[in-house]
């Protein structure tokens, strides 16, 4: 009797302790939740709301119909095209780089990580201007190419898409390599040894064991690079020579030209929706969200 | 998105400064300009003398164009009393109700031509877009607009990344008389631009960038603000420029709607427009006076006056920019231009 009673009491106490803890946890998460709501959800809602009004405060869809004009369509296409090129290039350079940091000699791997971090910690503006100087007509790159006899006349390496992509890939590489490195680091080398023990060649072990296990890191890196690249402003503005226009540059131009915030807000809304849509498609088609299985 | 962030930061900053504005003592006005060498020169030529003449304190701030003024006015409590903007921004700000009418019983327009002021704005200093070139780029480098826009003259070129001024220069090169420039023949201008587009290495976006393009010899010739190339030349770079068919535009001052010290703001504008202030400015930075009486003050050396585009001797050699035409047509032409330079 007393045993059963104390058992029920215990369960009740346990239950209330659990409840308390849950409330406590929720309470401690509340400030962060409020912060996200205040600084992220509300402004985006406000942005969307603004995009529905014209300069006189009248409800309108003009801010959206304008986006069907050739210049806006071209800018959207160009923005996504650049983001895709940059993401693919980052994967092609970043994957071997991260792999090297895992498998290479320790001191070289440390050096590779150091170089990556120094680059990450250098101001974006400084790196962009550095590329401008390297790639320009009388810059180091062209001097080198010409002294090696690879080309007679200077190549147009900057003030165009080429220069923009070079600059952006450099800036985005750490965002690709760091998640990849973390994912690869967590792969136990024993898996590869097991594959070898079962007779897999090194390349087969890589393809069937290492590569699939590193995919979540690759997906995280690629998503990060793709999304950040969509919003680039400084690098395409400086290295594109005016011939490359991305959405953020269009937003700036519309903010200064039109009397209402709505004219530019609609661009932000469409970019956000298009980005979410793209990520959804990528997630569905690549099946990269299935790590938990 | 970065750009929006910038704007929002500006807004937040503006809001936080409103509180500061309220504790300022009476007898104080706030002037916001473009910063840099221009505002340094303006401090000496306009602001310090005005402080002495009016017995007030002048606070200074920097801004980067109409969007900043819009953010302040829309916040309901602007902090700035007098703001210096580009000419088309002044016209647009008036159109969009962002500025107060100027009090012309306080501000004298004597010596100021009628096309240099409007209901809510008055031009404060002129600046020219000129053709500049590197002397070491070879004998064939274009030295007038006609050659600059001639595709047979091979050179690496740069032009402003905005349709305004750029379209005008193309039309002048194609033989349109400066007096008959407006309304702009937009189609014709684009045809002229199309011819040299493959040789336009870069469409520059800021004054700093344009100077850098010439200094690094990334381009042989370009359209550039006179003050920028003048600075290079003074620093010993082997470059030169011409005022022939220079396109003269101007900065102008406005009083934002709801400015805290409106009456003093009008007095400050009056001081800025005085021949003495106008003449002093051009001795510090090559932004020539709007008030032609400045040329009678004796402050501007004769040798310098001979080179200035607003001086009586040169006024026929230059072309004047028309912000009113642009205010009406910019949105459409801008989109066409942005599309044009991307293909």
TrEMBL record, chain A:
Signal peptide: none annotated. It is a multi-pass membrane protein. Residues 76-282 form the ABC transmembrane type-1 domain. GO terms for cellular component: plasma membrane. It comes from the Bacteria. The chain crosses the membrane at residues 30-51, 71-95, 107-135, 155-181, 213-238, 258-282. PROSITE patterns: ABC_TM1. GO terms for biological process: transmembrane transport. The keyword Aminoacyl-tRNA synthetase does not apply. Keywords: Cell membrane, Membrane, Transmembrane, Transmembrane helix, Transport. It is found in: Cell membrane. The keyword Transport applies. InterPro entries: MetI-like (IPR000515), MetI-like_sf (IPR035906). Belongs to the binding-protein-dependent transport system permease family. CysTW subfamily. This is ABC transporter permease. It comes from Pseudomonas vancouverensis. The lineage of its organism: Bacteria, Pseudomonadati, Pseudomonadota, Gammaproteobacteria, Pseudomonadales.
Automatic annotation (TrEMBL), chain B:
It comes from the Bacteria. Gene3D superfamilies: Periplasmic binding protein-like II (3.40.190.10). InterPro entries: SBP. Residues 1-25 form the signal peptide. This is ABC transporter substrate-binding protein. SUPFAM superfamilies: Periplasmic binding protein-like II. The keyword Signal applies. Keywords: Signal. PANTHER family: ABC TRANSPORTER SUBSTRATE-BINDING PROTEIN (PTHR30222:SF2), SPERMIDINE/PUTRESCINE-BINDING PERIPLASMIC PROTEIN (PTHR30222). It comes from Pseudomonas vancouverensis. Coiled coil: none annotated. Pfam families: SBP_bac_8.
């Amino acid at each position: 009797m007393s045993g059963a009673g104390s058992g029920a009491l215990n369960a009740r106490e346990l239950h209330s302790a659990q409840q308390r803890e849950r409330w406590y946890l929720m309470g401690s998460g509340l400030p962060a939740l409020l912060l996200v709501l205040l600084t992220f959800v509300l402004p985006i809602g406000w942005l969307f709301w603004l995009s529905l009004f014209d300069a006189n405060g009248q409800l309108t869809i003009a801010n959206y119909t304008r986006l069907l004009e050739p210049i806006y369509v071209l800018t959207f296409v160009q923005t996504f095209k650049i983001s895709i090129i940059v993401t693919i290039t980052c994967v092609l350079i970043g994957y071997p780089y991260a792999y090297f940091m895992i498998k290479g000699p320790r001191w070289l791997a440390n050096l590779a990580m150091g170089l990556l971090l120094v680059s990450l910690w250098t101001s974006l503006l400084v790196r962009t201007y550095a590329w401008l100087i390297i790639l320009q007509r009388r810059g180091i790159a062209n001097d080198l190419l010409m002294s090696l006899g690879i080309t007679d006349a200077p190549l147009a390496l900057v003030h165009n898409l080429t220069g923009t992509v070079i600059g952006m890939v450099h800036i985005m590489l750490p965002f690709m390599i760091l998640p990849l490195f973390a994912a690869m680091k967590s792969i136990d080398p024993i898996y590869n040894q097991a594959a070898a023990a079962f007779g897999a060649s090194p390349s087969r072990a890589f393809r069937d064991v290492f590569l699939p296990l590193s995919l979540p890191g690759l997906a995280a890196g690629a998503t990060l690079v793709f999304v950040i690249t969509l919003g680039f402003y400084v690098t395409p503005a400086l290295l594109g020579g005016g011939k490359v226009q991305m959405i953020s540059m269009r937003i700036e131009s519309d903010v200064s030209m039109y009397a209402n915030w709505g004219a530019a807000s609609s661009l932000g809304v469409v970019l956000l929706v298009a980005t979410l849509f793209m990520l959804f498609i990528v997630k569905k088609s690549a099946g990269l969200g299935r790590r938990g299985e | 998105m970065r750009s929006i962030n910038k704007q929002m930061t500006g807004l937040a900053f503006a809001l936080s400064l409103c509180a500061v504005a309220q504790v300022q003592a009476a007898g104080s006005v706030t002037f916001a300009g473009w910063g840099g060498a221009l505002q340094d020169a303006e401090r000496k030529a306009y602001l310090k003398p005005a402080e002495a003449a009016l017995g007030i304190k002048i606070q200074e701030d920097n801004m980067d164009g109409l969007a900043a003024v819009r953010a302040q006015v829309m916040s309901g409590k602007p902090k700035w009393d007098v703001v210096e903007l580009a000419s088309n921004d002044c016209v647009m700000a008036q159109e969009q109700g962002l500025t107060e009418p100027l009090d012309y019983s306080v501000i004298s327009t004597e010596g100021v031509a009628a096309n240099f002021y409007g209901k809510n704005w008055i031009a404060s200093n002129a600046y020219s877009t000129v053709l500049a070139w590197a002397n070491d780029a070879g004998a064939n480098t274009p030295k007038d607009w006609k050659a600059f826009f001639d595709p047979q003259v091979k050179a690496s070129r740069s032009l402003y990344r905005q349709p305004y001024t750029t379209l005008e220069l193309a039309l002048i090169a194609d033989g349109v008389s400066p007096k008959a420039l407006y309304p702009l023949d937009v189609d014709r201008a684009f045809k002229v631009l199309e011819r040299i587009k493959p040789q336009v290495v870069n469409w520059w976006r800021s004054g700093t960038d344009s100077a850098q393009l010439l200094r690094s010899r990334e381009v042989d010739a370009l359209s550039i603000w006179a003050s920028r190339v003048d600075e290079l030349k003074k620093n010993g770079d082997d470059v030169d420029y011409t005022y022939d068919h220079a396109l003269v535009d101007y900065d102008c001052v406005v009083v934002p709607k709801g400015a805290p010290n409106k009456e003093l703001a009008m007095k400050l504008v009056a001081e800025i427009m005085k021949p003495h202030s106008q003449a002093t400015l051009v001795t510090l930075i090559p932004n020539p006076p709007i008030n032609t009486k400045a040329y009678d003050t004796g402050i501007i050396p004769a040798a310098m006056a001979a080179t200035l585009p607003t001086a009586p001797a040169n006024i026929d050699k230059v072309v004047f920019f028309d912000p009113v035409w642009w205010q009406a047509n910019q949105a459409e032409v801008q989109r066409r231009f942005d599309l044009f330079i991307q293909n």
